[in-house]
Amino acid sequence: MQSSKMRRKVAPAAADGDSSEKFDQLLLSSAICNNEDLGPFVRKAFTSGKPETLLHHLRHFARSKESEIEEVCKAHYQDFIMAVDDLRSLLSDVDSLKSSLSNSNIKLQSVAGPLLSSLDAFVEARNISQNVSLALESVRKCVKLADLCSRANLHLSNNNFYMALKCVDSIEGEFIDKTPSSTLRKMLEKQIPEIRSYIERKINKEFGDWLVEIRIVSRNLGQLAIGQASSARQREEELRIKQRQAEEQTRLSLRDCVYALEEEDDDDGLGDQGKDGYNNGSSGVLGFDLTSLYRAYHIHQTLGLEDRFRQYYFENRKLQLTSDFQVSSMTPFLESHQTFFAQIAGFFIVEDRVLRTSGGLILKMDVENLWETAVSKMCSVLEDQFSRMQTANHLLLIKDYVSLLGVTLRRYGYPVDPLLDVLSKHRDKYHELLLSDCRKQIGEVLAADKFEQMLMKKEYEYSMNVLSFQLQTSDITPAFPFVAPFSSTVPDCCRIVRSFIEDSVSFMSYGGQLEFYDVVKKYLDRLLNEVLDGALLKLTNTSIHGVSQAMQVAANMVVLERACDFFFRHAAQLSGIPLRMAERGRRQFPLNNARDAAEEMLSGLLKAKVDGFMTLIENVNWMADEPPQSGNEFVNEVIIYLETLVSTAQQILPAKVLKRVLQDVLSHISEKIVGTLLGDSVKRFNVNAVMGIDVDIRLLESFADNQASLLSEADANQLKTALSEGRQLINLLLSNHPENFLNPVIRERSYNALDYRKVIAISEKLRDPSDRLFGTFGGRGLKQNPKKKSLDTLIKRLRDVS
């Protein structure tokens, strides 16, 4: 065998390389022998414009090779003849082989004939078996498919849409491409989208019904949740009251400690199962069902429409919330505010449950955005409604409900500070309205007062009018019927003030402000100082026309002073601060003006009465020959009246008030006596008249001393000091050494109440008995009285000083 590798052939060298044409021919022959590319030679021929030369060289090369071929053929001719001889010798062998093969074929066909017929029968039977197996497999698939279709129809008829969709998905994924029946396959391809569309319509209708139902449920849910918050607040109040009672008992008696087991109600009524699982979409006691929502969301997830349903749900709920914001102009807000806020509260309670249990149906950010919108709208509504309200009670009712709304929704994690800020902003307006209401109520109470002591026939009346305001002066329950020292004005005003305190604390409580006692105290001070004090002052100045009325008002003021202590303690207790802190911050009695006016009015009326008796002083004989032994007529009348007054006043007036009034009246009597001696009605008087006035003052001092059993010895002595001006004047006029008045030490000790100008004027009226008319005839030659001389010296010295 010749080698496949071609040897490189070298063209014979030209004898003479001078000729350029022969050199080109040589190069072309060499390239052809070596199987090289002839492209360069072709391009060169055409470039030079001589392709005929190239053709000539090629023809020359071809002619040179024909001779070589002839030489090769001549060299192998003998071998070819020998090969032909070999083939002729083999022809006979082939003929014998052919006859042998023919015989073998005949034998083989005779033997294989039956086998071929059996093989044909086998092949036909196998084809039949395969066809039967394929038919059975097709039947089994159709049976399974029919079973799935039957189950899908059953689930559809039972509204079990999820299982129906799972059957449809199974048919579509496992059978529809492998179904042997094209008719059945076309039917399935047509019905499956219709089934999905039908399920989507049905589930959307159920969801729409749920949207309608959940609005009603939300309102009831909000009312129930807010009611539970109110109940919890009431339990806290009851517990706080028990704590106050225990603290009070501990304060009164450290040994008497009261212990009680408080059972806390852990069930807040909101249902805890929903926090960990679906609980079939319900919420315990609150009982709202989210099954339809969960089902619709699950079906849409199965249909691959999760995002579309999520958006559809959010938009519908947002529209519902916007609808809930509408405030009816036909119904007063006071009547509709509970429904308004309960609807919003229920909406967000539902959304909180959906957020926690639906598995991504709504995002937390979406709920927060809805809440911000709701808070903004509620604040706007509150601002508008509060600005229109002119009744404190209406404002308080709405505030209480809003605060309960805040407590309810804060448990679900919603921030309610903007709502509380709106309530705080209207704190001043509420209290101004409350003060206005109290001013009106107090005016009506005072106008209806009959200035009579209050009669209580039953113990419950005593508890309601005395004990409830801690007005009692003794822990011993009196016998009934009981006549109180105050009139009906006192408990009525106490009830108004207590109601004011409770309303103020109720408004300030649960509003986000922990310490509000100072605010309550500020408005309580205004109520007492401006409203109650002003009303009592007006009553005193315009409606009192008698001593008994003035005495009753003064007695009422004393009881109201004790009531004011109760008011501040009550405010402190309701505000949750220790009583010691409240007592530490107490100021003076807030009804000072009314109390002083009442006592001043009582004193003025008593002075007017006394002045009526003091007119009898005109009957005094100022130049009497002998001093009266039992006092002058006017002082006896005055003392009788004062004793009658004291016997009446001691039943209703406290000792300290009675002392102040008597002290003022006695001081007035003393001033009247001195004024009479100083006045123009008395031109002159003698020592006997002075001694008579001395007896009068002694009777008045005795009256003051007699009050020691009613007041105290110190108070009785203070009553006597009210007569100090008259007493010191009489002592000076009866003194043997009146010139001692000029001694600063003696004057400060014994005559500190006297005005030297009055002393001069009165002393000049004093006449010695020898100075009587016609006395100069009988007394001629008598020595001048040294007392008179000393008095004249005193007058002269005082005139020099003045």
UniProtKB/TrEMBL annotation:
GO terms for cellular component: cytosol; exocyst. Keywords: Cytoplasm, Exocytosis, Transport. GO terms for biological process: acceptance of pollen; exocytosis; Golgi to plasma membrane transport; intracellular protein transport; pollen germination; pollen tube growth; vesicle tethering involved in exocytosis. Pfam families: EXOC6_Sec15_N, Sec15_C. Residues 418-765 form the Exocyst complex subunit EXOC6/Sec15 C-terminal domain. The keyword RNA-binding does not apply. This is Exocyst complex component. It comes from Vitis vinifera.
